[in-house]
Amino acid sequence: MSAFWSWFIILLVVVNIVGLVALLFATARRRGGDGAGSATTGHVWDGDLEELNNPLPRWWFGLFVLTVVFAIGYLVLYPGMGNFAGRLGWTSGAAAADELREANAKLETLYAGFRGRSLDALAQDPKAVKIGRNVFANTCAACHGSDARGAVGYPNLVDDDALYGSDGETMLASVMRGRHGVMPPLAATLPDGGVDEVAHYVMSLSGRPHDARLAALGQPRFETICAACHGKDGKGNHALGAPNLTDDIWLHGGGDVAAVRAAITDGRSGTMPAWASVLGEDRARLAVAWLLSQNPQRAGAPSAAPAAGAQ
């Protein structure tokens, strides 16, 4: 704060206090003599009912004086007069830092009890699961939903399908380091109706309604272009985050021909941000433990994908 504004605030505070004290003592004096009915406002009702203008009772006046004394004492001890820091040297920043250190000390004690244990073991610990549920709700639910079952474009985290692998360590790597999945637009590489043909072939892989003739034409195109990521059988590739096209789980859209055609034509891009700097490993592990607890069959699943950076 500049010196000008500091002195401006000091002057403003002093003028207010002096003005309030002057007003207080001015209204404390009795007016119009000593008679009980002499200090009136001049207002009369019903002929003889007068409105008196007496000073405050002494006990009430004393309370006002005490508030002024308290205010002056506060301004001497604590900041409030421009750049004057107060005799105690208190600052809101220092107070917040002290509270943060105290909170971190408590959290350190709490998280220390969960370190060194496997994610599968934490998924069986009610206390760890409860804390992990809170971490997930505060951090992850905005995208994946409060029940972790996702939405269009945001994967379900508690089913048996996972783009990069469903074991705890792979899920932890996704949380800590993030994921970036990209499917390039392929319309230019599939001319002469190739997009429709491949779309119908993809629909046939999961047994959904499709045009058999177009699907037959799309199969060689799929095996030439799409199999590099999704595999010749269409079952995907965890190492690349390429989805399984033979099941009935669809991340983008409802699994109809139009949605598949749009994905082939325009491509898809999805980013899961890295949360290591926000959550830290302790809280991330507890969040993953909660996810594992929602589908116990996933605990102990074989790891299929390394930690992913930007792909």
Automatic annotation (TrEMBL):
Entry's Gene Ontology BP terms: oxidative phosphorylation; proton transmembrane transport
Which pathway does the database say it acts in?
Energy metabolism; oxidative phosphorylation
Keyword Electron transport included in the entry's annotation: yes
One GO cellular component, as annotated: plasma membrane
What name does the UniProt record give this protein? Cbb3-type cytochrome c oxidase subunit
Keyword annotations of the record = Cell inner membrane, Cell membrane, Electron transport, Heme, Hydrogen ion transport, Ion transport, Iron, Membrane, Metal-binding, Oxidoreductase, Repeat, Respiratory chain, Transmembrane, Transmembrane helix, Transport
Primary localization class, coarse? membrane
Provide the function of this protein: C-type cytochrome. Part of the cbb3-type cytochrome c oxidase complex.
How the protein assembles, per its UniProt entry?
Component of the cbb3-type cytochrome c oxidase.
The residue ranges of the Cytochrome c domain are 127-206, 213-295
- Family note: Belongs to the CcoP / FixP family.
Q: Which NCBIfam families match?
A: ccoP
Q: Which cofactor does it need?
A: heme c
